[in-house]
Amino acid sequence: MERNIVYIAVFAALIAALGLLPKVTLLSGIPITAQSMGIMLCGAMLGARKGALAVLLFLALVALGLPLLAGGRGGLGVFTTPWAGFLFGFPVAAFATGLAMRWMRGARVGVAATVASVFGGIGVLYVIAVPYYMAMTGAGLADAIATAMIPFVPGDLVKAVVAGAITGTIYKARPRAVMSRA
Amino acid sequence: MLSLTLERQSWAHRVPVGWKLAVLFALTFLTFPIERLEPLIAGIVLVLLGWTSLGRTGFRASLRALRPVLWFVVVILVYHLLVGRLHQGFVIVLKMLLLFGAANFVTMTSRLGDMMDLVIRLLSPLRRVGIPPERIALAFALVIRFTPVLGQRGARLAEAWRARSARRVGPRIVAPLAVSALDDADQVAEALRARGGLRE
Questions:
Q1: pLDDT at A29 (0 to 100)
Q2: What residue in A sits closest to B200 (Cα-Cα)?
Q3: Contact between chains at A76 and B69 (C-beta distance less than 8 A)
Q4: How does the average pLDDT of chain B come out, rounded?
Q5: Least reliable range by pLDDT among A124-138, A159-173, B54-68, B150-164
Q6: Please, what is the Cα angle at B89 between B83 and B95, to 5 degrees?
Q7: pLDDT at residue A7, as a whole number
Q8: If you average pLDDT over each of A85-94, B6-15, B47-56, B104-113, which comes out highest?
Q9: Distance between CA B33 and CA A71 in Å, rounded?
C-alpha cells in the first residue's frame, strides 16, 4: 500500500520535473516539452489505474496553483483555454496506455510500451483534445486537426519511442518497478 | 518551490477559498452560452478592476500570467479572420480572456494550503469507497517534496552529460532520473511502513 501511493506521487513529480527539462522548439514555433512523455511513462510503468491516478494528482496540484506545467504555467487559468482538452485528456491517456500494456503482456516491454504510448498518449489523447478544441472554438474537424493536432504529432511520435525505450531500460534495471508487468 | 500566490495580502486573500471557487464555477457556466460581445467586455472590465485592486505588483503578475495565452489569441483571431467569421473569433477570445483572468485572480489570491484543505474536505466522501482523505493529503505532500528533488537531480544529470559529451543533452537522461526516483520511492515507502504505515 505504501509503495503504491509513493510510486504514484513520484511519477506525478516526474511529470513536473520533465516540464523543467530544456524544451525543443519546432520550426512551426510550437514548443515541444517532455511533459507529455511523462504521461506515457505513467501509463506504461504504473499500469492503467495507478498511472491515471498519478496524472490526476499532478493536475490537481497544477489546478491548486503550483506552476508545474512546462514553462512555469499553472493555476486554474490553464484549464480555460481551447487547448485544455489535452490536460483533461491526460489522465485518460495514461489509463489507456496502461490498458494497452496489459493487452500486450506477452510482448517485449520496450516494444509494448512504445505501442501502448502511441495508442494512449497519442491516439486516445487526440480523440479527447481535438473535439474539445472544436467545441471551444467552433472550428471544423479539418481545421481542428490542422491547428491542434498536426503540429504536435511528429514530436509525440518521437516521445512515444523514447518513452518505450526508457520503460525497457527501467525494466532491465529495476524489473519490480514496472508495475504494469508485476 | 514557488507557488503562484501573491505574497502581498489583499481584500481578496481574506475571502474564503470556497466562495472564490464557487463564483468562478458559476462564471464559467454563465459565460458559456453568451454569444454577444458587450457582456463579455463588461466581464473583462470587472476582471481588470479586480486585478487593479491587487496593487501594482498584483496587476503586473496578472499580465505576466497572460503572456502564454496571447499566442492562442493570435492563432484564433487569424484563423477566424481567414474563414471570415471574425465576430465569432472575438467571442471566443474574449470568453477565454475573461475566464483565464478570473481563474488567475482566484489562483493569485488563494494560499496553496487553503486550497488543499478545501480539496481534501471536498474529497472526504471518498472515504466510503476506501480512499481516506489523509492519504490524498500525504500524496500531495509527497509530490511537493519530490518535485524539486527530481528537478535538481535532472539538472545534475544534464550537467554531468555536458561535462562528458559535446552533443546536446538528450531525453536519454530520463532513464537514470526515473531509476533514481524509483529507488527513492522504495526507500520512502519502507520508511513509511517502518513508522507504522498506512492503515488499510
A1: 45
A2: A1
A3: no
A4: 88
A5: B54-68
A6: 160
A7: 95
A8: A85-94
A9: 32
Which of A55, A60, A66, A84 lies closest to B99 in space, CA to CA?
A84
Span between the terminal Cα atoms of chain B, in Å: 31
Contact between B1 and A34 using a beta-carbon 8 Å cutoff? no
Give the closest of A16, A57, A177 to B139, CB-based: A57
- Band the pLDDT of A143: cuts 50, 70, 90: confident
Cα–Cα distance, A44 to A50 (Å, whole number) = 10
Provide the residue range defining the domain that includes A102.
2-181
Helices (H) and strands (E) in chain A, counts: 8, 2
Q: How far apart are CA A14 and CA B150, in angstroms?
A: 7
Question: Is the pLDDT at B162 greater than 80, yes or no?
Answer: yes
Kind and range of the H or E run holding A112: helix A109-117
Which CATH number belongs to the domain containing residue A20 in this structure? 1.10.1760.20
Q: Does B183 touch chain A (CB under 8 A)?
A: yes
Closest to A173 (Cα-Cα) out of B104, B183, B199, B90:
B183
One-character DSSP codes across B14-34: HS-HHHHHHHHHHHHHHHTT-
Residue in chain A lying closest to B151 (CA): A17
Does residue A146 sit at the B interface (CB-CB below 8 Å)?
A: no
Q: Does A56 touch chain B (CB under 8 A)?
A: no
- Secondary structure tally for chain B: helices H, strands E: 8, 0
**A138 vs A79, higher pLDDT:** A79
- Domain count for chain A: 1
How many whole angstroms separate alpha carbon B87 and alpha carbon B32?
Answer: 16
pTM beyond 0.90, yes or no: no
Greater model confidence, A72 or B60? B60
Owner of C-alpha cell 498511472 = A51
